[in-house]
Amino acid sequence: MRKNIVAGNWKMNTTVAEGVALAKEVNEALKGSKTNCDVVICVPFTHLCPVADVIDSNVLGLGAENCADHEKGAYTGEVSASMIASTGAGYVILGHSERRQYYGETSETLREKVALALANGLTPIFCIGEVLEERENDTFNDVVARQVEEGLFNLSAEDFGKIVLAYEPVWAIGTGKTATAEQAEDMHAHIRSVIAGKYGQEVADNTSILYGGSCKPSNAAELFAKPDVDGGLIGGAALKCADFMGIVNAF
Ligand code: 13P
After folding, report:
1. pLDDT, tens digit, 9 for 90 and up, residues 168-207
2. What is the DSSP secondary-structure string of 17-76?
3. Known catalytic residue at 47
4. How far apart are alpha carbons 64 and 53 in whole angstroms?
């Protein structure tokens, strides 16, 4: 059956020293407690190696926030999936709405990134989600289904089984405005039915679908109690150990 996962997305925050200190703190907190989910932190590229050195990979997973859409070569400033894997990281966030919005990521480039991540043994945390206008004009179910289909449905069932999905309604990211647990559950069930239509019910039932967008200790338990919500992708609240652990412990 699918895993419950709480993953932090640090975005472009913390210096290396601050990030290492935060990672150590989370690692220590996890060692001292029994959790009912896998816990991952996704950190800036500069932080991957020093963070990998201070965490115990048995209690805390490590991921990047993006990877290049090419294997290697003359792509100044890019970081490849194999470079990420070589740091010891096991995950990579792909298709975050901030990358789709500000860096022009399309389903086409995301298909390349997903393929390279998988080829290098990384688990993609693939983000999808509608903007406010699409929520308000009632096209959100179609928009999100299309993001899943265009970004991932070229994969074999075996490869699709390696993907973690994160539903992040763009209007809820960093706004303090969380989707209600019912809105999250409705969308997650919809996504699962779209997956079942392509790959069958067993693959759909085995896919972890995380919720992201202003998730915090005070609302995590209600969200995670929903049958199709398998955890969270956490932005702001992942930058404070106590808040992040409060969400982890909501399971
Ligand atoms: P916030 O938790 O800060 O709303 O960010 C969510 C997010 O974008 C995680 O990827």
Report:
1. 999 999 888 888 999 999 999 999 999 999 999 999 999 9
2. HHHHHHHHHHHHHHHTS--SSEEEEE--GGGHHHHHHHS-TTT-EEEES---SSSSSS-T
3. no
4. 15
Q: Is residue 223 within 6 Å of ligand 1 at its C-beta? A: no
Of 198, 194, 70, whose CA–CA distance to 143 is shortest? 194
Catalytic annotation, pick one of 168, 185, 188, 190 = 168
Q: Residues in the chain with pLDDT < 50?
A: none
Give me the long-range contacts of 218-224 (CB less than 8 A, separation at least 24).
219/178, 219/181, 220/246, 220/247, 220/250, 221/250, 222/181, 223/178, 223/181, 223/184, 223/250, 224/4, 224/250, 224/251
Measured in angstroms, how far is the CA atom of residue 98 from the centroid of ligand 1?
Answer: 10
Sole residue written with tokens 């950190």: 43
Nearest to 30 by CA among 54, 46, 11: 54
- Closest C-alpha to ligand 1, atom 1: 235
The CA distances from residue 185 to 23, 115, 144, 222, in Å, are 30, 29, 14, 11
Taking the whole predicted model, whether its pTM rises above 0.90 is answered as yes
